[in-house]
# Entry
Amino acid sequence: MYKIINEAEIDTAPYEKVFDEYFPYAQKELGFDKKFKVVLASDPENAKKFFAGTANYNPDTNTITVYVDQRHPKDVLRSISHELVHHAQNCRGEFDKPIDTSDGYAQTDPHMSEMENEAYLLGNRLVRNFEDNKKIKNERLYEALKKRFTGE
# Structure
C-alpha cells in the first residue's frame, strides 16, 4: 500500500511501527484506493524558518514529501495525515483539473480552499482519533494486567 523513501537518512524505527498501524487506519477512514509513497526529507535551512514548509503532496506521482528536521514524530505524522487527505482527494478525482498551487492559492481559489479545509480538519482529526484509540487500548491493557497480577 505504501513505500517509505528515507532521503533524510534518519533512524526510521520511531516511525515504522506507527506507520504500519496508522496507514491502514487512514486508508479505511479516507477510502483511498491507490498506493502512495512517503519521502522523509531533510532540509536544514528550511527547518530554521518559522514558517517553513512541512510537507507536500504530488498528485502525479502519489508522493508525500515530509520534512523531518527538528520535528516531533507526532508532528510529522500530522503532516503526513494532512497529505493523505490530499491523496484521498486525488483518488476521488479532485486533482483531475488544472490546479494552481502558487502562493495564496488556499485563500483565492474556492475549490482549493475547500480541499485545504478538508485536509486540515480530517488530517488532524484522524491523528487525534488514532492516538486516543491507542491510549484507551493501552489503558485497558494496563488495567487487565493489573487485575491479573494483583487481583484488584
